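Batch job 17 of 40 flagged for manual review because the log was empty.
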Amino acid sequence: MARPSTAVSEVVLGFQKHPKGKSSGIAGLRHFRLPWDRPGKRSSGLCSQSRATIAPMGEFDLIARYFTRPVQRAALGIGDDCALLAPAPGMQLAVSCDMLVEGRHFFAGTDPERLGHKALAVNLSDLAACGARPLAFTLALSLPSVQEPWLAGFSRGLLRLADAHGCELVGGDTTQGPLNICITVFGEVPAGQALLRSGAQPGDDIYVSGTLGDARLALEALQGRIALAPEVLAAARLRLEAPTPRVALGLALRGLASSALDVSDGLLGDFGHILRASGVGACIDTSITLKLIAASAYPISAGGLFDANYLQQCTLAGGDDYELAFTAAPARRGAVAAAAQASSTPVTRIGVVEAAPGLRLVDAQGRPVAQRYASFDHFA
């Protein structure tokens, strides 16, 4: 997208910078306008005094205080027009990008520390689905205003997760506007070993990691559609706002899984991408997926709150799970179990890949279950 002609700047993998010591005769663009800088407004004595005695935080102060840290793995981090990454010999670079928009992907007023965590987690989940080890990421952040407590919480959640996965912040951009968070993440994977969506074969087992549906349950409660006991809502909301990227499992599945992806928009909708890319069909046992919602451990019969159909909607099409769905040959069941144990990640076998196209749902007795579950669509 073209920038305004007065915004003399460029970003590749580095936080936005003004040209090095060059004067174009144009005042440098301020991405965060101060109250006394409104066009057509003259500074009053009070504003002039405030400007002299209060040091407002500008764009580069914000970057320096909350997002600039020394890099250990990248060849060059924040401070130049570009960052420099150096994948190890024999490695391919895996790149993914995700955007979170207030009101579309998260509620206004979401805890900033959890939001910082989730913004990176959803990107790390993509690397996990490809079996890639995280290297670095960039952050493009649009803020309505500079609120230091919010920035402190957001950066704390973001960088804590980054440190846990050895993923360094190496650049990005900041500007003023509606709250919008866009992260591009970089990882490395041995050449030819990336997990793809296109390798599923008829007869392969279908697996999913962790639990499904709890994020959807929390969303429904926060939107006032259902009522949850406080302890159930707290647990489900944690799954919605602070998902766990399955990076260790993705690494363990290299050379083992025939296909993989992360479940972000709902199991059925997302797994359909594997079926189309691989040119196959699948049969999924809904009596197994029904039990994958963690909230089922609670007394769901109390007040008749959850029925089976509602739980199926959550587990099969809920979205925001950020688990891995993958396929593997039946002969590799022992190896899959070992990978799950090595990565401390539970996995569940939920179905089988079939030669005939399409996705079939069955119950515990093998009887057909109607497919009436729609996954999330950003433009629906």
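Reviewer: the log was empty due to a logging misconfiguration, but the result itself is present. The mean pLDDT is 84. Unflagging and moving on to job 18.
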